[in-house]
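input
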Amino acid sequence: MDIHLNVVERGTGFPLVLLHGNGEDHTYFERQMEPFARRWRVLAVETRGHGSSPRGTAPFTLEQFADDLRDCLEERGIRKCHLLGFSDGGNIAILFALKYPQYLDRLVLNGANLFPEGVVEEEQKVYEARWRELGALPVLTEAERREWELLDLMVTQPQIDPAALKALTMPVLVVAGEKDLIREDHTRLIAASIPGSVLRILPGDHFIARRNAESFNETVLAFLEGRDGPEAAL
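output
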């Protein structure tokens, strides 16, 4: 491990880990931290090269971020947690769940995608155009290099086979906005590929945790507390 991730903590009890999206930091979850901290030990993790977490020298890939998360949990003696990932954080959460399922009690995937084509085409074309533009430059400034690395995560990653998701056996909530940046058929593919998963499409866009926090928080709370899902009917 070449770096230590920055983590903002609130509350006590069973750990609930939050993973932000591309180019963001822990403040994305400012409307979740306090409500969730009334019930759990909330850890908002800033991924490699984001927020106050250093870039380090390891590859800037979602797979590396998943390994970083494992190291982060081990540092804190956390062997079991709930994990909520948003956007690229959701993609990292999927990769983490596939590689390190023993750490997870429940998993929440918000606005995740299995491959770049899961993003709405018009949006993805914008990312790809800027990625190619920067990639064609003979020399990049530090700011341009960082922008290219962030775009590269969205243009080339992840590459997850939907069939691989059948290996996930922990309870999973898949949640997205009605007007999400992720195509609704792609979100439904993710949910359909995970045995027994719960799917919720909420009013709003990609950023429902921030812009429709009341509905988002209640949806997540109900799932994590076992009030929504197959076990709720038992």
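quick obs: The chain has a mean pLDDT of 96.
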